[in-house]
Amino acid sequence: MKIKENTGYKVFLVVNTIIMILISAATLYPFLYLVSQSFSSEKAIISGHVGLIPKEFNIKTYVYVLTKGDFLKFYKNTVIYAFVGTILSLTFSSMLGYALSKTEIKLMKYLTPFVIFTMYFGGGLIPNYVLVVRLGLKNTIAAFILPMMISTYYVLLMKSFFAGTPKDLEEAGELDGLDKFGVFIRIVLPLSKPIIATMTLFYAVMYWNNWYQAFLYLRKEKWPVAYYLQTIIRGQGANDQDAQSVATNIKSCAMVLTVLPIICVYPFIQKYYVQGMMLGGVKE
Amino acid sequence: MSKMGNSRKELKNPNYRYSWRSVFSHHFLRNWQIYVMLIVPVVYYIVFRYVPMFGNIIAFRKYRAGGNLFGSGKLTLRYFQQFTKDKSFWRAFRNTLTLNITYLLFRFPLTLIFALLINEIRNLHWKKFVQTVSYLPHFISMVIVCGMIKELVSTGGPINSLIVALGGQPIQFLAVAKYFVGIFTISGVWQSIGWGTILYLAAMSNINPSLYEAAAVDGAGHFQRVWHITLPSILPTITTLLILDIGGLVGSGGAFEKVFLLYNPMIYSSADIVSTYVYRMGIGSGNYSYATAVGLFEGLINLVLLTIANVTSKKLTQSSLF
């Protein structure tokens, strides 16, 4: 049925559109500012005339960053870490989430609280640091990946999703001679594309963006690009031994190149992760 | 092998009385692969979650770099006595509360209003566009967010250019303590406002449209419908999110990265929070036991608050974190 509209509401719709345009612009502004800087000359940036439109437009910065300097090396590290980490995280989180969703198995009644409790309380910064160092993981890829490999929150999201898989499909699979692994891999996982896509995005972004484990445990040749960015953003003179001074346009260019893959991917999985977040209900 | 043979026989004979042992082995035969899937995750949780949890014991015992993971020597409350007398600790504790509360006071209502406004957008493509754009900051590394903040507030940056154009003097925002709460809050809202709408919008999409139609028939205008139908319908979501946010007020998990990347000794007086203090004391100066005691103190308050929040939320709205 048609709901009658009055003038007040029409005015509101116009105001609302303006508010939305302003919010979108405010969200995008810092990104566009970075892009503009990355295409400007260092001279123009220092004189303070670069706004949203590049001054003395050039692509020399990109050519420099992509061919010379350390950037590519660190970028490659990030790609490797994100790839290996995401595969490990997906494998073990989905196996744990699937097992926990089998509530008919008695053990899960004890295992679920065992897992959930770690969301409430854990070792703080120092016990975690001491553990990684004592395990001898310092300056290895394991120190970067292992401390965050399984996220309890994501495991619980997966558990709720798997719990919704039709039981008769799983039973039919077993009647057809599949074992539990077979049911999980051939029946449950193919039905779980939305949650797998969501988890792939979340875990990949987590590894892609992480600088902290690198800061604590890794030497320069193993840095991911996020921590390299941190060292050039801090600049020289900061109370940070890794800090290094780099021209603003190079800094901006490196940041743009680091954000780019995420910007290219996340809008296309939006349908899935919005669904995935709803699975958690209000579980934050 | 023989075990398997036995259980087959047992399964075929309907009159077979199952012994405890055969029930167990039958269950295990059916489900052993589920248990296999659990091996790595459970070992992982023990080593990387529970060992550090018990590693907190070094808050009560001396830990030497390279020594026993769980410390050595007698149990003592010395480290707790030390930090409760430490002014820097209480300053960090106050700052944690100030930053978290200010941030919550702005973020919470603004997110709700933003969700209500998005819900009013008629054009679906435009709506999707606004949502997609507003989710973007959620996916960006804190390093880059802080890099952007530094660019924007730098002396030659756009904010200071505006101040100069209006006839003012440029301000070194990150070198003056009083500006930090503002920078922290504004950038936090910028980062989280879009992502925070997801659960509200989901709750709104579950509202039965016939409610709105009935209200319209009764003569309710658009804004009355929002007030009398939309808001009451999403009230459980609002309550739960608010309670859980309040439960997290003492924790500095989310704030750590941003503060750590932005602060400097000039603004410790307003920016230093408990977790950054723990970092400096522990890994920075090597006072492992002392820093662990501070971290444990915060962790325990957090545990209590989260539990209270969770129980309250369960009572009030039947929904909870767990």
Could you write a compact summary of the structure shown?
The complex is a heterodimer of chains A (284) and B (322). Chain A is built from 15 helices and no strands.
Straight-line N-to-C gap of chain B? 42 Å
CATH architecture of the largest domain in chain A: Orthogonal Bundle
Helix residue percentage of chain A: 55-70%
- Total number of distinct structural domains of chain B: 2
Annotation, overall tally of beta strands of chain B: 0
Biggest chain-to-chain interface with counts:
A-B, 95 and 101 residues
What is the C-alpha radius of gyration of chain B, as a whole number of Å? 27 Å
Counting helices, strands and paired strands, the structural category of chain A is mainly alpha
Mean pLDDT of chain A: 89
Total helical segments of chain B: 15
Q: What is the C-level CATH assignment of the largest domain in chain B? A: Mainly Alpha
Termini separation of chain A: 37 Å
What percentage of residues of chain B falls in helices of 4 or more residues? over 70%
User: What is the level 1 CATH name of the largest domain in chain A?
Assistant: Mainly Alpha
Overview of the molecule:
The complex is a heterodimer of chains A (284) and B (322). With 284 residues, chain A is mostly helical. Chain A folds into 2 domains: 7-58, no CATH class; 69-279, MetI-like fold. Chain A contains 15 helices and no strands. Chain A has helices spanning 7-38, 42-46, 60-67, 71-101, 107-120, 125-134, 141-145, 152-163, 167-175, 180-188, 193-209, 212-217, 225-234, 248-265, 270-279. Chain A is globular, with a radius of gyration of 24 Å. Chain B has helices at residues 2-12, 20-55, 78-84, 87-119, 124-135, 142-153, 158-165, 180-192, 197-205, 209-217, 222-247, 253-262, 268-271, 274-284, 288-317. The longest helix of chain B is centred in the N-terminal third of the chain and has 36 residues, at 20-55. The radius of gyration of chain B is 27 Å and the shape is flat. The model of chain B is unreliable at 1-7 (pLDDT under 50). Classes of the chains: A mainly alpha (284), B mainly alpha (322). Chains A and B meet through helix 1, helix 4, helix 5, helix 6 and helix 10 of A and helix 2, helix 4, helix 5, helix 6 and helix 9 of B.
